[in-house]
Structures
1.
Amino acid sequence: MSKQIESIDILGHEAVVFGKYLLRQAPNEKVVELYRRAMSTTIVKPTPEDQKLLDFISKHTWSVGLIDGGLALLNTDSDVRRRIYTMLAITEAMPDYYDYYLPKKRSNWYLLSVAFVGIRGVLRTVFGAIVIKVIA
Amino acid sequence: MKILDYIVVGSGCSGAMSAQTLVEAGKQVTMVDVGATNPKYHDMVPEKDFITLRKTDPEQYRYLLGSEIEGVSWAQIGKGAQITPARKHMYKHADTHLRMDSKNFFPIESLGYGGAGIGWGVQCWEYSDADMRMAGLDPQKMSQAYETVARRIGISGTNDGTGKYTLGTLKTYQPSPKMDRNHKYIMGKYDKHLKYFQKLGLHMGRTPLALLTKDKGNRKAYAYQDMDFYTDKHRSAWRPWIAVDELRKNNSFTYIGGYMVKTFKEKDDYVELVCVNVDTGKEESFYCRSLILGSGVLGTARIVLRSLGAKKRLPILCNPYTYIPCLQPAMVGKEAEPGKMGFAQLSLFLDENNDNVDTSVASLYSYQSLMMFRVIKQIPFLSFTDARVLMQWLMPGLVIMGVHHPDKHSDNKYMELVPDKHSATGDSLKVHYELGAEELAELDRREKKMVSAMRKTGTFALKRINPGYGASVHYAGTLPFSDEEKSFTLARNGRLHGTKKVFVADSSGFEYLPSRGVTFTLLANAHNVAEGVLAHGS
């Protein structure tokens, strides 16, 4: 029983970390609950490498973006990516966060923002790959 | 032992249509079916459009992702990518009762109430006369049957410049639904460059759909709520279960659910149908004067192989399919569009010889209601936060081309039953399907030509994705038509050679599979087979 509670708490912490990473704000309680539910019903035991990364993210929450980016290059099927992806799907289906997902009217100047995101993304991916190698 | 007059096996397109023809002729009909349902999602979707629901409904995750988030799949885009939680019952029992043994063929089969028609894209192209002849069908009889089916299910279409590829000779149809901005844009550019397209043998027009734009009986005109992947609430799109629901109100029709047909045994004056109860696993028999198999091409093949000799190797046809995400730069950065729809709106035909034979066809869809999470995995080398920003900007310009090609028999396309101790029926279907180098080169050439021409419409392919053989969900040719009384072939009226009272109502008999979706034709053929059964006498 205590093991189960401990595992639920880990999932709750994970949900908050991934939610903050995706939304730049703490996700609401419903999102955390749904993340726990999704992870409990579709448990895939992480590989030792993935577990290392999950532990690292848990302790150093700033690293989640770098590790996500690095895995997009090194191991797209990683369980870490699967978990972030599940959180993304859950937040997409929440009215509180529709603004992050439904297309919005953008002016042509928005192209500059997209270019910035692209450059940031590439840097994240490169540095993330280095961080992953170091952790490994 | 009670001997029933007519038993129809399966509630999918061919089962539903043949049963309707028999019932309308005043016959007593019993349908035997597994009929898996998922009532959990039936009335869950509120009466609002997709964008309003996204902005307001705190319970939307239930129907968009599933109550247990079971609709979020980590798998790459492939077979059944558009199957949402509300339609997942399509696959119920399939793992145990429709086992498949193949390295390269991954079909979609269903034991759901309404069969694979639960997830049908409702495209209703007529085959050309030449295509029908190659498939072994009689164009004159089929033309009448298309009309009957169109009256029953309700078809919307436009007799535009591509009428010969889409509606054919059909007279009964409602106007097409309105196009969204992506498709209006494509059509506008196509009209501007019409001569260029015609020179290449490419023709674009509205896709005929089994979708009402005017009320029909208790079914309502399409309401442009863009919830087509999640609910059939208004019954605007025809599904086989809608027909079966109507039949069940008739005293001449009996529905027996929960049974999967294993074999049949023909006696002097009746047919015994041996079934497996999917809940108990026990075998039970039903008896009838005439048996009509409408259990889908692969399901029918299983039943026939078990009944007539499991060691036989049968041929198979399946439309090769490629999934091509495209981008329309002119639409990028626009806000979400209300009133979109998830069904195909335009079709692009490649008919280089201008003879309406051996064509390839691309169906065009815009992307919105399947949500961002289904496509974001495709963005390479980016973290999910960066990919999200990019996708939010790009998504209004996302257009999907689904390209189907015709298929012919070859020695490299076959299947057989093999023992399988994990299967509820004791066997699985082993399929070998391989396209030859020449075939692959030809498909590649055609796709490149279509993709290249689409650039003229301001629509640019991002990549070509092969979801694997079998993903088109169009199967045929396992028991080809024959004028000789040969085993494992069908007479032209659908009777299984070697039997007196066993008929096959699906596309098992087709000797060729044109690129245009098979469903409308198999509905028409099922009607014709039922007429043949009536002519044959019970």
Note: The mean pLDDT of chain B is 95.
2.
Amino acid sequence: MLIKSAPDILSSEITPESVYRNRRQFMGDALKLGVAAGGLAGIPAPAFGASGDALRARAPADMERSAPAGWWQEKFDSIAAAERGGDFWTDEDLTPYRDVVTYNNFYEFGTGKADPSQRSRNFNVDPWSIEISGEVDNPGSYDLEDFMKPHQLEERIYRLRCVERWSMVIPWVGFPLADLINRVQPNSKAKYVAFETLVDPDQMPAQAGRFNIIEWPYREGLRMDEAMNPLSFLAVGLYGNYMPPQNGAPIRLVIPWKYGFKSIKSIVRIHFLEAEPPTTWNMMQSSEYGFYANVNPEVHHPRWRQDMETRLPTTLFSSGRIETQMFNGYADQVAHLYQGMDLARYY
Amino acid sequence: MRIRLRTCIKAWIWRVTTEPAGVSLALLSNVKALRNPTLWRILRAVAFCVALLPFVYLLQGAVLNTLGADPGRELALETGRWALRLLLMSLAITPLRELTGLAGLFPLRRTLGLFALFYAVLHFLIYNVFLLELRWSEIGSDILERPYITVGFVALLILVAMGVTSTRAMVRRLGRQWKRLHQLVYLASALGVLHLLWILRTDLFDAVLYGTILGLLLGYRLVTRLKRRIRLGRARAA
């Protein structure tokens, strides 16, 4: 059965995640009651998204996270919804919350897709501080609360394309990276911005693992004009809820036109510099992972093709295979950044 | 120092080439209960059921939809892993039998080998049906152009050839050729480990684990074969 959502569908018409997820139980209950096909009309009214909530979707009530601290709750009380039809919005079906929070690549917690969600339950994000350093007028160590204070949180619905050929559609909560950069005032020497993930083997078990060949901390970077692009986003939540550890709590990058590994998680350091910074996957295997890592269906990874992707979730009856778009469908917003560059060389 | 080291090595070589293997373990074959054919029939039936468990578990996961966001991929990965595990287990039977002298172990080699084939075929079918949805051109280009898939496919072909010739009638018909064909299992298992190693992105644990086990199993055979040759040479000289 194929359900296509029309672009002008009202959020109140979308079956809530919890109802969708519990469809089997719902059907089971319906059958038990002896209600046959006619009973389908009796799907309960959506529990959220209906009464004046402008957000596209919220985490199902039974999976909602509680605030890491009081100020988080205040911050999340006012989230601006993504503008329908705007640059930061898509009408594609959202990847259900449960899949977004259980199918993760976060090698600090292990390489299995379920490892991050299973091994990060006690990950502590309060207190959290971020160091701003390098070619910048306002360097220093910022407490996350102060770091986020001036920024209005907003919802953005982005496609996420992993270099492993799977993809999701996720409603993030956060603020534009450009707003932060404008605040900390990089100087004229700053041509690149580099990011680092927390190193804490007590909390991130795989950092202590012996068979892992990653040199911690995990590092990523962007050219300054990429970082200043309106699409570049610092996310602190998803589905209207606080960021789960496995998705990069408390704060992570989201660069939707690049492969997922560029969107570094659990950031503790932002460094501005003149030269291109080393990045983790490029350091490990430069023939497979470049600095730019733009989603590009014409440039294949040496071990797998990149012109198709699997949109999650799949079932055994639908493989979810769709064609990969140039710059993950964000060419209008970012193609100008790479004009005149040979993208087969700068992959 | 150097001379002493040399005499030590000589003494060691003398010992490992003259003493019968696993003297202490071999005592197991003297335990009467362990020679009871009924016991072995039961043990083999148990092994059969245990080897089926991963299949039952995955089938249940597929039916109940508890395999995560990408069930096809999960099934492909797990059946592949089990194929390799069972293949290594089947390779462990000969050393175990030789070390313990328990002849009852012998038929397990075929049982486990056929289960390895079973999971390898499932792995191949799941990959092509659920992940590639039988797009033949893609299947073909994968096998020809992706080295890790090429080696996996070659390993599968070897296992199929071995499975087809695993009946008693075939053993008799092929005679000496049978042994030569079935020695390809060493190649198949090495390709299996390579197939796994090649798709990993960073965590080498699995590849190191399976590679080490394979190394030990093949190393054992190398040593026993060398010993046999040396002993034969000595016998001839004497």
Note: Chain A touches chain B at residues 24, 95, 99, 102-103, 107, 110-111, 113-114, 164, 166, 206, 209, 211-214, 284, 303-304, 310, 312-316, 319-321 (CB under 8 Å).
